[in-house]
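pasting Histidine kinase for the record, 346 residues
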Amino acid sequence: MSIIRQINNTFAAPDLRNSATVVRLLIIVLGSLFFLPLISDSSLSYSAEIYHHSKWIFPVLLGILIKAYFVNIFVPSIKEAPYGVIITYLLNLSIFVIVDFVVLKTNGRSLSQHFFLFNLFLLGLMYYEASRRNGLAPSISEARLSALTARIRPHFLFNSLNAAISLIRLRPYDAETLLENLANLFRAQLRDGSQSSTLGQEIEWAQEYIAIEQIRMGHMRVQVMWQHQAPDDAETPHLLLQPLLENAVFHGVESTHRPGMITVFTKLNKSSIYIRIENPYTPPESSENAKPHKGNSMALHNLKERLTLMYDNDAKIQSRQLDGIFRVDIRLPYRKKASDVNRLFG
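structre below
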């Protein structure tokens, strides 16, 4: 297992669903195209050598991108399947066979050479991708540590348990609901495995958190308007919404001692998921809201790092304050998350 883990840390397959990854791939391919003639022992001129290599590189690149597009749409679970690497390798080999026999009509004379160069290039690309992800690893570890120590804050845990104790005799149903939601949230916090979730699951966890706060502080004080118009099967980072809503309650409602309206809005626009969270905002200079806002910026920073790791530059998060409102806007590419059935049998 340690050897496999070391290999995974050294080589990582690039996610061709991300436009920034495709752009980097094109730049590296063009760079390789101009570099190959320099190490070739062919008698052809430099320009002729570039043309010679471009005749097979660009058809292969086009085939790889088309394969990645259809695989991600129809069989996205192939990357997580037990034999996914072998299947992907055979698909790549079939692309080279088609290019050599159909496009170049060389009857396979250059197949081994081209496939060897491709695998050499692929290993370099996977090494670069792993290095890029490992560069983000400290931020991900920091986010994970923050999740265990601060995401569900100790004061929230103690206050929730005290609220449940006080409700056991007078309102046993509310006490039971509070404890069940609290258990679900901690189970989600400590869940191991996949680093992605679905928007529907994120909405459910966020609603369970809000239900706890409404029981604890009152429905009149914690008010939430849900405008969920995006598909539930959209893939998202794990625990995307709950930390943001916790910040909204902590900084926008609890610290002001006044009722506050929080708005959660999601929608699908073409191929992107848009999420907006708004909560009341009082400048930290105000004596009414003197609690530090450091936790808010930390949660946003950690979320930005997680979005970068998962979507590269295809995701965006912005925050701003205006007219007494703190707003967080998130844009994600719409990708359907593979179901558990597909992971097992896909």
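The longest helix spans residues 111-151.
The chain has eleven helices and seven strands.
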